[in-house]
Amino acid sequence: MNQIKIRDEFVTLGQFLKLADIIGSGGQAKWFLQEYEVYVNEELEDRRGRKLYIGDEVDIPGEGRFEIVTGE
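The chain above was modelled as a monomer; its predicted structure follows.
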């Protein structure tokens, strides 16, 4: 499982996609979430504003599994 480090309390799903190098810019998040299945803690999610906290897991079939961890 890949780890994505954050320094703040949370990141949005759109920010996460950029941090994980899945999309090139934040503007692509809406399109990506319409075209691909993204699971947050095993639940299908399509809201780019969904807050992700430390310990949350994101699964994107074909891209990998990711865990949000502290960057401090």
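Residues 13-19 form the longest helix (7 residues).
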